[in-house]
Write a structure and sequence with these properties.
It contains 13 helices and 2 strands; from the N terminus they run ααααααααααααββα. By secondary structure, the protein is mainly α. The protein has one domain. A hairpin with a 3-residue loop joins strand 1 and strand 2. Helix 4 packs antiparallel against helix 10 and helix 8 runs antiparallel to helix 10. Keywords: Cell membrane, Membrane, Olfaction, Receptor, Sensory transduction, Transducer, Transmembrane, Transmembrane helix. InterPro entries: 7tm6_olfct_rcpt. It is a multi-pass membrane protein.
Length: about 400
């Protein structure tokens, strides 16, 4: 018996599977993280603690302006704090809305959608395993990067340690306790909390691509049937044939509109959060590169190199999902161009023109056109990081 997509089962139920959705394991992993780490009191407390720490950093820099530590260390730590703060601020209030969209997305498959064929299921399962391996690699190397960062942290230049020393009046016991709170509880909680939303967004993107592919497969079947009856002129003019075309076109239109509405709804929820996380992530990656360039010891460079590689890999996964949605929309439009519309009656041709009109512009996830999730985003990311490093180099000189 299939489990339902109810919020109660998602938040409090056991991990479950849904055989018609090969990417459902992403939702399972993300909901496991949410059930573990989304206690509202804890999340809001950590959010306000980040605000206090950012204020303390500003006050400390006003009192001791760059007397200790390097600019790159200060910028790197501050960018991490801002990234975590934006994560909590943007997503805590949208927790329930995310799962409402998640519930509506499931209906497109199990209520309105058509089942895919066996060959497509095998191909999709193979792709799902590749994504599972990629996500596992990201998780492992993220823990490695964080562990190396904590182990090789320089207490003489780390801005958080310096601020904590100032707050505790250089008392070692107080410093140890606050360091454990920062690096043992707050930051791991933030990384896992942020990772849950990244994983859930990957699920949404891949599921949209999956739904578009199933719709394109239905169009391919209809195009193939038209070719099979190419020589039967009497069948073209029959009411049975025209009625079949009408029913199919109504389904194509309705399903595509449902997918578009679901994607637009998700985009409305996700766009500002993605924009803020992207901008803070770019700054964080830029400061990581600066740290790699300025650090002399190979031992101290290692955490930054691993972290930068993980960040690039995460951005690559996200942009690739957006690019796949774009590709599926373009192929869907081209596939619909193969319909033998000259055999159809006037009413069916009008339905076809409507389908052409709504599929002419591909679907995409974007934030007011400022950032669009596709492969061009990676090019823009490299340019922004390069500009950031160049600007820092000129300021340093």
């Amino acid at each position: 018996m299939k489990k339902t997509f109810s919020i109660k089962n998602i938040i409090f139920g056991k991990l479950h599977t849904y055989e018609d959705d090969p990417f459902f394991w992403m939702a399972d992993w993300s909901t496991l993280l949410f059930r573990t780490f989304h206690q509202e009191i804890i999340s809001r407390t950590i959010f306000w603690m980040y605000n206090v720490l950012l204020f303390a950093i500003v006050v400390y820099l006003l009192i001791y302006p760059f007397n200790t530590g390097t600019i790159s260390d200060i910028m790197y730590t501050t960018s991490q704090m801002v990234s975590f703060q934006l994560c909590y601020g943007n997503y805590m209030s949208k927790f329930g809305v995310f799962y409402e969209s998640f519930q509506n997305l499931g209906k497109l498959t199990k209520v309105y959608g058509r089942p895919p064929n066996d060959s497509f299921k095998k191909e999709t399962n193979r792709i799902s395993h590749i994504w599972k391996l990629s996500v596992t690699i990201v998780i492992v190397f993220s823990f490695v990067a964080y562990f190396l960062n904590v182990c090789f942290m320089n207490d003489d230049t780390n801005i958080l340690v310096l601020v904590v020393k100032g707050l505790t009046l250089n008392r070692p016991k107080g410093l140890l306790g606050i360091n454990i709170l920062l690096y043992g509880i707050m930051m791991p909680h933030s990384l896992l909390f942020e990772g849950a939303f990244v994983l859930l967004s990957l699920y949404f993107n891949l599921h949209f691509k999956y739904l578009l592919r199933i719709l394109r497969e239905s169009i391919e079947i209809m195009v193939g049937l038209e070719k099979d009856f190419d020589d039967e002129i009497e069948y073209w003019n029959s009411n049975k044939y025209q009625k079949h075309i009408k029913n199919e076109m109504k389904y194509f239109l309705a399903q595509y509109i449902r997918i578009k509405m679901s994607l637009d709804n998700f985009n409305e929820i996700y766009k500002m959060g993605f924009l803020s996380i992207t901008l803070s992530g770019v700054v964080e990656m830029g400061t990581t590169l600066v740290s790699i360039v300025t650090v002399d010891s190979d031992k101290n460079i290692l955490p930054f190199v691993v972290y930068f590689g993980v960040a690039i890999f995460i951005f690559t996964l996200i942009t690739e999902t957006g690019e796949q949605i774009l590709i599926e929309c373009e192929q869907l439009y081209l596939q619909a161009k193969q319909f033998r519309w000259f055999q159809w009656n006037k009413e069916n041709r009008q339905l076809l023109w409507m389908f052409y009109f709504i599929t002419q512009k591909p679907l995409c996830l974007s934030c007011y056109g400022l950032i669009t999730i596709n492969r061009r985003m990676m090019v823009s990311l490299y340019r922004m990081v390069y500009s950031f490093v160049t600007c820092f180099g000129k300021m340093n000189n």
